[in-house]
Amino acid sequence: MYSVKPLFGIAFVAVCLFFGCSKKEYQSFEELDNANIRAYIQKNNLKVSQYKDTDLFYEVLEEGTGNPIDYKKTYPIVYTVKSLDGVYNSGDTLSSSNRYADYFGYFPFGSGAAGSPTVEREGDFKEVIREILQKTNGKIRIIVPSRLMYGRNGVPERGIPPNASLDYVVTVHDNFTDYEDGVIQKMIANAGLNIEDFTKTEDNIYYRIDEQGTGDPITADSTVTVNYTVKNPDGSERDSDTNSEFNLASGTIPVWGEILSLINKGGKIRFFVPSPKAYGIAGVTDQYGNYTRPQFLSLDFDVEVKDE
Questions:
Q1: Which of 36, 104, 122, 246 has the fewest CB atoms in 10 Å of its CB?
Q2: Domain boundary among 174, 198, 233
Q3: Is residue 166 located within the same domain as residue 188?
Q4: Which tens digit of pLDDT belongs to each residue from 183-234?
Q5: Is residue 43 within a helix (H) or strand (E), and if so which, with residue range?
Q6: Which domain holds residue 260?
Q7: What is the rounded CA–CA span in Å between residue 142 and residue 149?
Q8: Same domain, yes or no, for 233 and 192?
Q9: Do residue 218 and residue 201 come from a single domain?
């Protein structure tokens, strides 16, 4: 009769080796993250500090001067983010992809991706923002290991590579009104326009009448034919068309009726609009939760009304 003891011993060693290798693989992933982060910090001579006993590193770039940051409140948050190897770099705070207006406790993924009603989660980098920056109207850099963000696979469709630890610079603004007014002023300057040529309304809309027009007056419920161009905060074109017909009472956003009524048919007007007068602070999503109109999106309209 054959003894099973040797076979059992071999099997036991094999199991130990298997689990030992698995554990080692996980540790090497963590070690790779940490080594990459420390090399990046040293190479760029960053004056960062380690957050508690985590592998997150931070540096306050501008002290917060506003209100205490609350996980259950909504702020206009803008940020830049890049992978440590520079393969992924999203660095324009005027880009529609570099903004966040959901509950702060779900930053940066949003409540739609949270899968849980809770906003408290220890050890992630929004905790660093709340505990270190503490107040709004401040800016903080945070370096986040890949395993706490997009992991081994990354997000290829967004250009985020595998195993990408990320360097965020996050600004938490106190309120949308002041932030968007500043953005619009920057949009006007970046477009090569003189802000003194614009009139500012009580709703923080900036407009400039280029041609008054000699046709019929326009009212809030007029039907008009227009040539128009709409641009994003970064100056990229969002939409444009010629000879488009709209009823101002129902066929477009309400601000058109308000602003186009300042001119006559045959006129031209340029106006910059904060999000509450356009598509809203929260933006617009499709049935799958994808943004068709990004959050707190200020817009630049250039409109010519045909005299027909």
A1: 122
A2: 174
A3: no
A4: 999 999 999 999 999 999 999 999 999 999 999 999 999 999 999 999 999 8
A5: helix 5-43
A6: 177-305
A7: 12
A8: yes
A9: yes
